[in-house]
């Protein structure tokens, strides 16, 4: 039986494309017949909710009642994967809240699986974030995610600097999200649907759409490359318990 898995997508820096990653994960799991639910912590509006309203609930992670909606239902929910899309600047507070309620102790005891997709920015500030969240990563499957979807350029950290920040945290791997052409990205945003729905030329209500064949092709190729990255790092194996098993 599949253990409940919590996937946190976040960063303490804004503008790095966290919701883009959360949306891609939801599509990837759906295409692999894995039922997932999502929690959007950008209250009260919710960005992830706009694209995946059927699977997503808007929550406030600082609220005890909303924490209960997530954690207390992990075992009872039909969806065994719960994705938490953390608002900008909220990663450290979110991990602190999970630690305070004993979630990481439960992960260590094998009750749940925990995966962190840390979407990093192209600056030294992201390395400082890594140092801040290191204490919570002992029993996590921790991935650094470089999101190039908006043509972000990342510098290469020199080995000495890299070692300084990574001495207290072990990464499970690094995920690189490729660039999606500006026009294709813009049209998917305007459509307000999952990537797979846009590719299928459908509206949010399932009715036929009139999206560009060319742009749908670019999005299809991009999503396939993202799926290849998720498969390369063994995301499905981790969820199914065939990987690190934490």
* Overall shape: globular
Helix content: 40-55%
- Structural class assignment: alpha/beta
Number of discrete helical segments: 11
Classify the beta-strand content into a percent band.
Answer: 15-25%
Order of helices and strands: EHEHEHEHHEHEHEHHHH
Which runs of at least 5 residues are low in confidence (pLDDT < 50)? none
Main β sheet profile:
7 strands, parallel
Notes on the structure:
The chain has 11 helices and 7 strands. The mean pLDDT is 87. The chain is globular, with a radius of gyration of 17 Å. The chain has helices at 18-31, 48-51, 64-71, 91-100, 103-108, 124-133, 159-166, 182-191, 195-199, 213-232, 235-240, and strands spanning 5-10, 36-40, 56-58, 81-85, 113-120, 141-147, 173-177. 39% of the residues are buried. Helix content is 41%, strand content 16%. It is α/β, with parallel strands linked by helices. The protein has a single domain (5-181, 220-237), classed as P-loop containing nucleotide triphosphate hydrolases (Rossmann fold, 3-Layer(aba) Sandwich). The two termini are 15 Å apart.
List key phrases describing it.
7-stranded parallel beta sheet; Rossmann fold; 16% strand; alpha/beta; globular; 246 residues
Short recap of the structure:
The chain has 246 residues and is of the alpha/beta class.
């Amino acid at each position: 039986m599949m253990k409940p898995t919590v996937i946190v997508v976040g960063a303490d820096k804004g503008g790095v494309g966290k919701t883009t990653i959360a949306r891609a994960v939801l599509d990837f799991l759906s295409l692999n017949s894995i039922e997932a639910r999502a929690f959007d912590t950008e209250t009260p509006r919710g960005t992830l909710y706009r694209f995946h309203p059927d699977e997503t609930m808007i929550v406030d992670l600082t609220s005890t009642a909303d924490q209960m909606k997530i954690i207390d239902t992990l075992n009872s929910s039909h969806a065994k994967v719960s994705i938490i899309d953390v608002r900008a600047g909220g990663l450290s507070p979110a991990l602190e809240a999970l630690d305070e309620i004993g979630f990481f102790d439960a992960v260590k005891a094998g009750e749940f699986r925990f995966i962190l997709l840390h979407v990093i920015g192209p600056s030294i500030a992201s390395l400082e974030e890594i140092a801040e969240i290191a204490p919570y990563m002992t029993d996590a499957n921790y991935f650094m995610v470089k999101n190039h979807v908006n043509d972000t350029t990342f510098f290469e950290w020199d080995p000495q600097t890299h070692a300084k920040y990574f001495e207290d945290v072990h990464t499970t791997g690094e995920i690189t999200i490729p660039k999606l052409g500006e026009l294709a990205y813009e049209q998917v945003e305007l459509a307000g649907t999952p990537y797979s729905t846009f590719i299928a030329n459908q509206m949010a209500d399932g009715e036929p759409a009139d999206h560009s064949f060319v742009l749908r092709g670019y999005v299809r190729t991009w999503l396939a490359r993202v799926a290849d990255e998720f498969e390369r790092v063994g995301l499905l194996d981790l969820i199914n318990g065939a990987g690190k098993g934490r």
